[in-house]
Amino acid sequence: MEEFPQNLIVRPQIDYVNTLYVYPTSLNMTKYQGQSSARNIAVKVQFVPSAESDKAPGSNAVKAIFGKSSSKVFVTEAWAAVNFHSKTPTFYEEIKIAIPLNLTKTHHVLFSFYHVGCKVKKGQPTEETLLGYSWLPILENGQYIFFFFFFFCRVVPTDSPFLCSIIGDSVLNLPIASELDKQYDTSTANKYMDGKKPLFSVRTKLVSSMYTHDPHVTSFFNALQDASRGSSTGDGLAKALQQLLEANKAILVQFSPVLFDELFGILSRNFTNESVYIHAFHALIHVVATVHTEKASGAKRDPSLVSYVKYRYSNKAAAQRSVFEEIIRLMLYYLENLVSSRCKKKRGGVLSLNTWKIFYRQPTQSLRSSSATRGSSLKFASRARCSTSTPTASGSPA
């Protein structure tokens, strides 16, 4: 049971949830031309992995829709209530769909529209006449689908040449096809009603600890994946890190454990573009400040920050740089430049003393998790007390 309170309490995602809520809202069949009438209209909703040329649309629907209390846990289809004698019906149904982890660009929600006959002969089934179809792709132009959980981040490639996004909280207007081609989800030969005008409205809401529908967070993880393929400059990553400051605050809090993992991971890698480290640290400050701002009222700081440093953080196995040294170096650089007018205009704000403590706890945890770097890190800390100069690409103060 999922609740949608008006005053949402935002917390980091630590429980698995991966559902899409679909709400058919309205339909316009006033210009329908066919042999049967289009008045008592019903809508059937199915979750389909792909269109199959040798089968009828929806025949390969999967059991991904949560059933009602009187039916099985998962069913292949759900129906909206029939509107009697109305060519412009309004619907109020909520369909809850369990999204699989292995999403591809062919996964879609299929809507089938029927006219339901009222005059039923005794002993005969209800007459249902098919009027048309509409469908909603789950992915929108995607090459990589990033899905996250509190314990891991994984990338699943698809065969599309564009960056991906998953449908989230949206209101969409879709056309209705009276006749479908064999591969209707990719075909241009479908026959549409009323010149392909958007006749069907549907609303969606994504509740997931695996997928993020914020474009800035998605762009960041796509850039991170591109950088891990061998690009050492990090130019695209630097731009994505700047855009991360514009991400939805609730999304930043929900995916903060994974974001912390990746931002600390950037500090442990070698990039020729020094701005990558500056923007990564700035983004790190922004995420920490956001989590702290969204904390429960009365708390000095969000306990999830302390829990992350104490229980989750660990040095990367293939680290090329000491995270301890990078944190101290960038912290000094940030504090030195914070007083300048140029830095004051940047997003991210000034952290409170309680929030800054995470940046003192994290270097300590970094030292504990890697005894091999303890000696060099302590030497660097000793040097850092006397130096607050601008960092250079080599990783040491100028």
Binned, the helix content reads: 25-40%
Low-confidence stretches: 142-164, 371-398
Arrangement of strands in the largest sheet: 6-1-14-11
- How many domains make up the 3D coordinates? 2
| Beta-strand residue percentage | 15-25%
Compute the average pLDDT: 75
- Count of individual beta strands: 14
Overall form:
elongated
Alpha-carbon distance between the two ends: 57 Å
CATH architecture of the largest domain: Sandwich
Radius of gyration: 26 Å
Q: Could you explain the architecture of this structure?
A:
The strands form five sheets. This protein has a four-stranded antiparallel sheet, with no helix packed on it. Helix 4 packs antiparallel against helix 5 (275-293), helix 5 packs across helix 7 and helix 7 runs antiparallel to helix 9. The protein has 398 residues and is α+β, with helices and mostly antiparallel strands. The protein has helices at residues 215-228, 235-243, 249-254, 256-267, 275-293, 303-312, 323-337, 341-344, 353-369, 374-384; strands spanning 18-27, 41-48, 65-66, 74-75, 78-79, 95-98, 108-116, 128-137, 144-149, 152-157, 170-174, 177-179, 191-192, 200-208. The N and C termini lie far apart (57 Å). 29% of the residues lie in helices and 20% in strands. It has ten helices and 14 strands. It folds into two domains: 18-208, Immunoglobulin-like; 215-384, no CATH class.
